Amino acid sequence: MQIRLVFLTTITVWSFGFVGCGWFLDGLTIGNHGPQREARDVGSEEGSWEWVEPDTGSWVWHDYDVEDLQSVLVECTIEGLWVDGLLMVSSDPTLDVSGACSSSFLDTWGTYSFEACCDDYCCHWDPYEQDVFEQQDLGPGFEVEEGICLNSSHCPEGEGCFKEGQYGVCRNSEEGEPCSSFLYCAAGLYCSTAGICLSQNIDEGAMCTDGDEVCMWPLHCVCGALEGCKCYDGSAGDPCYSETCEFGLYCGEFPLEQGRIAGPGTCLEGAKGDACVADWQCDFPLSCNSSVEPALCMEFLLEGEVCSGEQMDNFTQCHPDLVCNEAYEPWECHPPGQNDAPCLSNTDCLNGLICIDIISVCSNGEPGAPCLSEAHCSAEFPCEEFDGDFKCVQYLEQGDDCSELSPFISCEPELECNDALDPPLCLVLNGEKWPCVPDEGTCLDGLHCIPSTETCFDGSEGDPCLEDDHCLAPLTCIDDICAEVTD
Fold first, then answer.
1. Chain centroid to CA 132
2. Domain coordinates of the chain in residue numbers?
3. Per-residue pLDDT tens for 186-230?
4. Of 44, 46, 39, 8, which is closest to residue 25 (Cα–Cα)?
5. Bridge partner list, 340
6. pTM to 2 decimals?
7. Closest by CA position to 303, among listed 329, 336, 339
8. Residue 21: predicted pLDDT
9. Strand, coil or helix: what is 322?
10. pLDDT at position 115 over 90
11. I need a labelling partner for 159 at 20 to 30 A (CA). Which of 115, 133, 144, 425 fits?
């Protein structure tokens, strides 16, 4: 902020709110050396002034030819107090440049605010103060013209009122000028935490301790655990937050085993080995493999595709529903094998199945499954030869359900499946519970063909009967049922 003080025959009075030492014109510092006096225009007589004597406090008349006064430029910048282009008092208390002053004064507050005096020239600097003019009563009919201002309330949002000529102009703050947010700074600048517009970083990798605004778009400020905060453009491999990667990339966690330090994510393009959380992040036809930690973009081979040789790497494998079956030459991706599927190890077979050495096939040990001995069959089923192959077989016992017979499931040799029953049962021919024709002797010795059921029974308790001879002793036929006599 600067003030050029010139006496004219007609005085236009602006109140800038500065603290001054020397003569004052209604509160404005006049650049003349000498004791401090407050001056005022007494009106009618040109060049007639009176001032307050500091010692007595009384007004003293004085005639002065205002055209003899010299113009003095008093400037206040963030560096300090300047008089006619010379730095007289630095805002840095450790830097003494006041040798040109008979006496100097510096009072600082906040981060950059200060008040400075060199002899009777004084100013103050406040980077947060936008209004360079106070509202004044300029008489009826005065209107602020477009583009000029008296204070920042006359300017659009994001612009301040800066003194240029008789009035102020609305514009953005240039580098080194005050601001309250990035909206107040001109293009290519940002508002620092000190309230000063500074140039944005345009170089990738530049430090950005003041936050994201320090970096010129499309650069973003990303803070890593070891790298500190730097500007990045979001290209592949750059540290990132969720929305800082360039189009077509995403921010993912990088696999720690590949040397990525702890910190933000990494801009990834979905190539083989890139971290992911969903298939859409991976380049087609890659898929996100969540069976590893962290999940990675990988190539999944389909059924029948070769899974050995040069095309294989750490990020290429059979689809999760398939296994790389080494029983094939070359190895191929196939679903885990069921009975008779080729295998070299149990992993080539479905869960619960075993891979039988020598014949290299999967077996679950159930009837019909391949075997070389009873040890390969479950439930102690025997292993028997069928057409040159050995299979696990099951023989059903007396009274077992035989509704699901197969070449590998049958009744014991002395039994037959009576399919006239519901459900069918394995029974001795013409034996107990076998269908019969009354009075034709179709039941085995010791059994009776009961007409009401046309079935052979031995007369056990609960069996149907017509007389006591149909029941085993000591049972008696009571109400056509073999039962024990009770008192």
1. 46
2. 2-125, 200-268, 279-334, 433-487
3. 888 888 887 888 888 888 888 887 677 788 888 888 887 567 888
4. 39
5. none
6. 0.41
7. 336
8. 30
9. coil
10. no
11. 115
